[in-house]
Design goal:
Blueprint (H helix, E strand, L loop, with lengths): L1 E8 L7 E6 L6 E7 L2 E6 L13 E3 L2 E3 L6 E3 L5 E3 L8 E7 L2 E7 L1
Antiparallel strand pairs: 1-10, 2-3, 3-4, 4-9, 5-6, 6-7, 7-8, 9-10
Amino acid sequence: MVEKVFLCRNSELKESAMRQVAVAGIDASLVVYKVKGKVYATDALCTHGKVALREGDLEGTTIYCPLHGGGFDVCTGKAVSPPCTVPLKTYSTVVEGDDIFGLLED
């Protein structure tokens, strides 16, 4: 089953920016990114160092972990630079008007 949950307002997310959000009903926080007008969402913690990715650098579609510098593609979750090897969980997003929703699967 897929659940549509509110993440944040599109107008609050600038281009090439990210924002950590808490989602009702799940234990983990997510990070929402806007890159070239598209919106992406991933788990908030690096799979290698378990630190908040919102503190890292977003370059294009790559988020770099602030602890060890490993990178993930925010579109696919793929680990793209060491020391990260385990992919980051991603979530589909939908923009409706000014609202950004994540699609969470059970």
